[in-house]
Amino acid sequence: MKTDPPHILCVNPWIHDFAAFDFWAKPLGLLSLAAILRENGVRISYIDCLDRFHPKEPRAPKVLWDGRGPFRKTPIPLPQGLEHISRKFSRYGILPEWFLADLTRISAPDLIFVTSLMTYWASGVKETIDLIKTVYPDVPLVLGGIYAGLCHDHAVGTSGADRVVMGPGEPLLAGLLKEYTGFDLEDERLLRSPIDLNSLPFPALDLQHGITYAPVLTSRGCPFSCEYCASSYLEPVLRQRSPEAVYDELVHWCETQGVKNFAFYDDALLVNAEDHAFLLFERIIASGLDLYFHTPNALHIRAVTKKAAELMFRAGFKTIRLGLETADFSKERAYDAKVTEREFGLAVEHLKAAGFDGRQIGAYLLCGLPGQNLDKLEASIKFVRKTGIQPILAYYTPIPHTPLWAEAVQSSRYDLIQHPVFTNNTLFPCVGSDQDLIRISQLKNL
Questions:
Q1: Which residues contact 322 (CB under 8 A, 6 or more apart)?
Q2: Please, how many CA atoms are within 13 Å of residue 339, restricted to the half-sphere of its CB?
Q3: Dihedral sign of CA atoms 361, 398, 433, 407 in order
């Protein structure tokens, strides 16, 4: 027999880092779980420690044309083992006293969900949980998300959570609620394997104090297995939503919240494009909706065909990012390249011919890889610039459960296994000499 629906508190934790900015960053997984629970009559409270629109903010937050903007920043001590770093370390997000007031204002929850993102933000997760426990020491707290999945043992040992879970949250929801609250979450959608993504409600973005953009996932998973990426570990199977369901979500946020900017979180937006992305783009074009789209996670270059470029331009894409990684197309390159020089050139040509300005197009180049030849990195930067688009250095973060992890651990001057903070890409943990660090600083100016 069902008990009364419980009260669940969902929390997005602070960031601890040398630098952080709201690059269309939202806890989409946590907000998706909140939406499912809410549909099942569960009472939801939501506190976002990164809330740029918190009611206690004394001034209106800065919002760029694309919805992004800076987080509130508070200097905090450097983590143990990084005292030698000259850069300032900060907590990004709301003030602790605001968080404490938010926690005490709500009625006591029956269960608390905390999410996590970057592995090296682990100390921000711990500080968040520590403060929650001062107010609700006896309420069970479950930690999930990327850090919890990739650094599970570390999270179990240090985060302060009562339970640390791995993988997508939907299949775990019913069991967690039954175990900790006694509530039977009788949602047939969650019993299917795999779960039909089209059947799930839109993420509960409306729980936020302000919405200047909406993150969108048209798919989960990625068919590629890049040496530096953990996507295939976190989501082993590519699953795609129907174009109709994604279109309905765009319209929903546009009409109910006035959202104009959308950021695609997909790792493989243009895979199976004829039956997936193209149908979505054509629907957007036919609707006449005036929306802006961004691709911060990068597009697979081979998939940027003439048709893809034309449809993206007409649909309203404003920020195009290409996953180039390196312009060293030789057979002797250190890591496998996804594309040839010709394929990259064609993608750029297609985008420009469709109407994109070179300033809208950026190509990610990996920087700080173990044993990386910086002469080749400089050549890659110059190569991309010659094509008339923007080279964007993507600083390498060593990530557990990736093919490069063992090499990163061996080559790093930090003990990457001791604490995730040492994998912070700001530290360039796999760059072997001060001379190379100086060189990278010079390359940034290119």
A1: 298, 299, 301, 304, 344, 347, 361, 362, 363, 364, 389
A2: 21
A3: negative
Q: Which amino acid, 357?
A: D
CATH number for the region 213-444 comes to 3.80.30.20
Q: What is the pTM of this model?
A: 0.96
Report the candidate in 126, 123, 121 with the shortest Cα–Cα distance to residue 143: 126
Residue 215 reports pLDDT greater than 90: yes
Pick the CATH number of 7-191 from 3.40.50.280, 2.40.160.60, 3.10.150.10, 3.40.50.300: 3.40.50.280
pLDDT tens, 391-432?
A: 999 999 999 999 999 999 999 999 999 999 999 999 999 998
- Write the pLDDT tens digit of every residue in 62-115: 999 999 999 999 999 999 999 999 999 999 999 999 999 999 999 999 999 999
Quote the CA–CA distance of 431 and 68 in Å, as a whole number: 31
Beta-carbon neighbour count of residue 207 at 10 Å? 18
Q: For the chain, where do the domains classified as CATH 3.40.50.280 start and end?
A: 7-191
Structure tokens at 191: 């019993």
pLDDT digits (tens, 9 = 90+) for 125-177: 999 999 999 999 999 999 999 999 999 999 999 999 999 999 999 999 999 99
In 3D space, the residue among 299, 257, 297, 252 whose CA is nearest the CA of residue 277 turns out to be 299
